[in-house]
TrEMBL record:
Belongs to the ACBP family. Keywords: Lipid-binding. This is Acyl-CoA-binding domain-containing protein 2. The gene is ACBP2_1. The keyword Repeat does not apply. CDD domains: ACBP. It holds the Pfam family ACBP. The lineage of its organism: Eukaryota, Viridiplantae, Streptophyta, Embryophyta, Tracheophyta. It comes from Stylosanthes scabra. InterPro entries: Acyl-CoA-binding_prot_CS, Acyl-CoA-binding_protein, Acyl-CoA-binding_sf, FERM/acyl-CoA-bd_prot_sf. It comes from the Eukaryota. Residues 3-88 form the ACB domain.
Length: 90
């Protein structure tokens, strides 16, 4: 399987992460996913009253220098790590 297929597979697996997954980890995944699928941030930073979207934008901006391939690899590694920490599904 190629990187794109692996990435898509782990994007599906990420949807099965438990609710207990920290917001910090969710934001890391969000930023890597956006960098891998869209590329560098292409929108203005949301206003200070929109905390959720602002945090998501900041997470995306934080990985701005990564190539699409780097972002995909980091995303896969992070999902694997979070799935291991979560343990087997109940």
């Amino acid at each position: 399987m190629g990187l794109q297929e692996d990435f898509e597979q782990y994007a599906e697996k990420a949807k099965t992460l438990p609710e207990s997954t920290s917001n910090e980890n969710k934001l890391i995944l969000y930023g890597l996913y956006k960098q891998a699928t869209v590329g560098p941030v292409n929108t203005a930073r949301p206003g200070m009253f929109n905390m959720r979207d602002r945090a998501k934008w900041d997470a995306w901006k934080a990985v701005e220098g990564k190539s699409k391939e780097e972002a995909m690899n980091d995303y896969i590694t992070k999902v694997k790590q979070l799935l291991e920490e979560a343990g087997p599904p109940a």
